[in-house]
UniProtKB/TrEMBL annotation:
It catalyses: (2S,6S)-2,6-diaminopimelate = meso-2,6-diaminopimelate. Signal peptide: none annotated. Its main location: cytoplasm. One of its GO terms (biological process) is lysine biosynthetic process via diaminopimelate. This is Diaminopimelate epimerase. It is found in: Cytoplasm. The keyword Cytoplasm applies. It comes from Rugamonas aquatica. The record marks H172, E221 as: Could be important to modulate the pK values of the two catalytic cysteine residues. Catalyzes the stereoinversion of LL-2,6-diaminopimelate (L,L-DAP) to meso-diaminopimelate (meso-DAP), a precursor of L-lysine and an essential component of the bacterial peptidoglycan.
Length: 287
């Protein structure tokens, strides 16, 4: 079939966005992977599928497929692209919508200045619900957070790294580093992603504290590799930093592809993610 798509990005985190309302989409993991391939397909970190909702009270259903073809629960930067897409395509005239995802319902809003704010829901902080297997580990308490030691095998040597574990609808392991430019993201990111204590794999965040309202962040994403920005990773990092007593809301997050703003009022409260979304081009591909 000839598939119509839109290429978009949010702070450099790039997407293929597909209207699944006006065209029938039923692809295999191999076909999703082909779309995400930067040499043989369109190329993207994630493919986003817009569908009719299956839950009452929702405006749309939002499905996310990583570049490896696997479906995942949530994507913060993608949710902003989603809002811009349905607005530009005339699929809604509303500035605020409710969107069904695999991780639950989110509430994105198109702001008057063109930026997009997404209510990402409250973070999940209980290790077993992330999910993270903490059995036999002794966590280190820091302010309101518990830092968990994660043992990594590095060329025959073993290194223990202290992690905050948070779910923003998808699992994150966040560590604080002195400098994100020299952090071993490509070396340890895959080891963290596939660590056996994370049964569903995990996104690995490397956070540098600039001051109490500003961080720099790199994220090695599950099923993708390092991306230029990660919306849920930014949310998880800020939650971890606030719980550790290192940050105050709101927090500016500098990713390699741009800036995001994260606000969080504390346990049980939703995380608000604000940032840009950009349409790059429209196209068709035979698939």
């Amino acid at each position: 079939m000839k598939l119509k798509f839109t290429k978009m990005h949010g702070a450099g985190n790039d997407f293929v966005v597909i209207d699944g309302i006006n065209q029938h989409i039923d692809f295999s993991p191999a076909q999703w992977k082909l779309l995400g391939d930067r040499r043989f397909g369109v190329g993207a970190d994630q493919i986003l599928l817009v569908e009719k909702p299956t839950q009452p009270g929702c405006d749309f259903r939002y499905r996310i497929f990583n570049a490896d073809g696997g479906e995942v629960e949530q994507c913060g930067n993608g949710s902003r692209a989603f809002v811009k897409f349905v607005s530009e395509k005339g699929l809604t005239a509303q500035r605020s919508i409710t969107v069904e995802t695999k991780a639950g319902v989110i509430a994105p809003r198109l702001e008057l200045d063109g930026s997009i704010t997404v209510d990402m829901g409250a973070p999940v902080l209980e290790p077993q619900r992330v999910p993270f297997d903490a059995e036999g580990l002794h966590g280190e308490r820091l302010a309101d957070d518990t830092l968990w030691p994660l043992v990594l095998e590095l060329g025959g040597a073993r290194e223990s790294v202290l992690m905050s574990v948070v779910s923003m609808g998808n699992p994150h392991a966040v560590q604080v580093v002195d400098d994100v430019d020299t952090a071993p993201v490509e070396l340890t990111g895959p080891l963290i992603e596939h660590h056996p204590r994370f049964p569903n794999r995990v996104n690995a965040g490397f956070m540098q504290i600039v001051d109490r309202g500003h961080i720099r962040l790199r994220v090695f994403e599950r099923g993708v590799g390092e991306t230029l920005a990660c919306g849920t990773g930014s949310c998880a990092a800020v939650v971890a930093g606030i719980r550790r007593g290192l940050l105050d809301s709101p927090v500016r997050v500098d990713a390699r592809g741009g800036q995001l703003s994260i606000s969080w009022a504390g346990v049980g409260q939703p995380v608000l993610l604000t940032g840009p979304a950009v349409t790059v081009f429209e196209g068709e591909i035979e698939i």
